[in-house]
# Entry
Amino acid sequence: MPLERFTEGDVVRVREDYPIGHFRTPVYIRGKTGVVTRSFGAFGNPETLAFNLPGEKKHVYEVRFRQSDIWPDYKGNARDSVHIDLQDNWLEQP
Amino acid sequence: MRGPNDVGGLEDGPVDPSTHELAFWEKQIDGLRGVIGAKRIVISHENRRTIEQLGHDVYERLSYYERWTASLQRQMVDKGILTQDEIDARVALVRARLAATGELELSPEEEAKCR
# Structure
């Protein structure tokens, strides 16, 4: 079982990385900073499963981002947020 | 590198939320993919990767289940289960059969997709 590196309330930054392969981390959220709101546990890693290889399980977290932190010209409520499920290897301590 | 599937934040038109009947072949490809997945011949994650790797041009021209079909064909060839020649021969056979019964009626757009 891999280590659960983050817990609810932790501030995390999404890796700003653009590798070639199969990744479930949307481009618009890479490099952005948010707060962990939930830990879902460890799941099979789609980055290796996409090649039908087993690989190591990865923890998946729900992370909350402020819309105004993502879109520079965001005109909605300053409290608006988006929650995205992200796996451990895409998160780092800011 | 942004895949054709990763459209978050890009300009686009309104989403059409209307539902539509599935064509028979769409149900067939759904069933076929289910069986191939359950037998672990091609798992759904692989299917998703191959769909993303169709490239922007093909991805945007094909409908949802057309992408599934193109992906499955690609996987069958990659894994050595079918050859492109075998697929081409069978497609020619099916097209000839449907043309004979008048069932093969492709719009110019559909014709373009076949090329």
